[in-house]
Amino acid sequence: MTAAETPDETTAVLDPTPADAAVESIHRELTAFARRARASAGRMHPQLSLVSYTLLGHLEERDGRRATDLAAHYALDKSTVSRQVSALQRAGLIERRVDPEDHRVQVLHLTESGRHILGEVTESRRAAFRERLAGWPEQDLLRFAAYLERYNAWPGGAPDEERDRPALRGTYR
Hints:
This protein is mainly α.
């Protein structure tokens, strides 16, 4: 192959492979999914953004976490988490408690109000997913769940992501 025939980064792929087309489709569909999720979060509960919802869910699942742990887990800037935490605390959905093992550390926990709202929103989201997936055969649902788990288990994810996987890992295969 001569230098003129050697492709470089600026060369457009004229005939993408089926795998290239699939990756583009995955990118497009995941982007649409993320946009829909953000938009629907406000409809589920006006005070609870998608970020707030995920933070509350993580705090419930882990029975509390430090703000720095949340930032690391979700690959968010500490200032972003700090703003979210302040808003959730002002809304009475979370509270800070001193860590019994290290009194210098504050751990974030859901309040009863936070648990209640999270439960309502979670049930609404589950109902929306059930409705959207109602016509899917069980085998398709199991494959889809397995593919999403596999995608999200990529080693480039959050450092504690694999450890934080639910106990259902492998259930879908």
